[in-house]
Amino acid sequence: MRKNANTVLKLVISGFILCVVLFFVYSKILSAEEYSSEKMGKVALQSVFNIKNKGKPEEWARDIPVLMYHHLLKDDENPYKDNGAVLSVETFREHMSCLYENGYYTIGLNELEKFVRGEINLPKRSVLITFDDGYKSNYEYAYPILKEYGFKAAIFLISSWNTDEVASFDANDLQYLSWHEIESSRDVFEYASHTHDLHRLDENGQGYLVTRPPDEIKQDLEMSMKILDTAYLAYPYGYYNKKTLKILRKLGYRMAFTVRPGRVKPGNSLLELNRYSIFPGISQVDFERIIGL
Ligand SMILES: [Zn+2]
């Protein structure tokens, strides 16, 4: 009788220990899947995002940097080297490698909109990469690098400047993306507006989005919206005023970017979002500060 009781007790204790061990292992697996984003890099970040609001609050982004790039050329082919107007492909690769090594998640425009509206949480190390003007060099150089790292980015096009014919790449010429290149790079890039044909400054150095008659601005932005099928805009040279905002609201634009440096937070004015210009000659320390490392 006593021997039986001992056996039962041993069974109960072993069962209890087994349960504790299983629970411990199971919760480890769960936390590895959901939370170890920094250790596991991009794949884990995707899974953190996919589980939406289940992550730990301290692993959500409070604010997100939006990076603004333009034209890229290799160091040895840059005819504008003296005035430093163009970022080198080598520097761009270093930036992307830095984002990758540190487990950053590159978000899309739609995700940023939802984040600002407070509708979704995003991983702490999220970043939005953007390019202005739509240079052919974005396709030639940025596209393969972004693809290699599994990143995505947004390009703001001046839709009347894109071409039907595909020219071969020429570093000495300022070329813009062809429609064919735009269509064949949608696995990496999404496209939004930088106006249809108002990327210009008047004789006083003021942007057309503040100096042209409202009807002309409205017509231009409506055209670009229709051609590109987008509700997102980047202001050329950062120029806009109350009149521009009114037109954008009327047309149904939902998000627009300035060139004011600073991070983007939930609750920000969606038509006046900050962006960091990534200038040629930017130091690695400054880049790391911008992305919040
Ligand atoms: Zn521009």
How many E-type strands?
Answer: 10
Q: What is the domain total for the residues?
A: 1
N-end to C-end Cα span: 67 Å
CATH superfamily: Glycoside hydrolase/deacetylase
Shape: globular
List the helices and strands in order.
Answer: HHHEEEHEHEHEHEHHEHEEH
Considering DSSP H and I runs of 4 or more, what fraction of the residues is helical? Answer: 40-55%
| Biggest sheet descriptor | 6 strands, parallel
* CATH fold-level name: TIM Barrel
Mean pLDDT: 86
- Give the bound compounds: zinc ion
Classify the beta-strand content into a percent band: 5-15%
Q: How would you portray this structure in words?
A:
The protein has helices spanning 2-35, 37-40, 42-50, 89-101, 109-116, 136-149, 179-183, 208-211, 214-228, 242-251, 284-291, and strands at residues 66-69, 72-73, 87-88, 105-106, 126-133, 153-157, 189-193, 232-234, 255-257, 276-277. By secondary structure, it is an alpha/beta fold. It has one domain (59-291): Glycoside hydrolase/deacetylase (TIM Barrel, Alpha-Beta Barrel). The strands form three sheets. Strands 1, 4, 5, 6, 7 and 10 form a six-stranded parallel beta sheet that branches. Helix 7 (179-183) links the parallel strand 6 (153-157) and strand 7. Helix 4 runs parallel beside helix 6 (136-149) and helix 9 crosses helix 10. The chain is globular, with a radius of gyration of 25 Å. The termini are far apart. It binds zinc ion (ZN). Residues 132-133, 194, 199, 236 line the site of zinc ion.
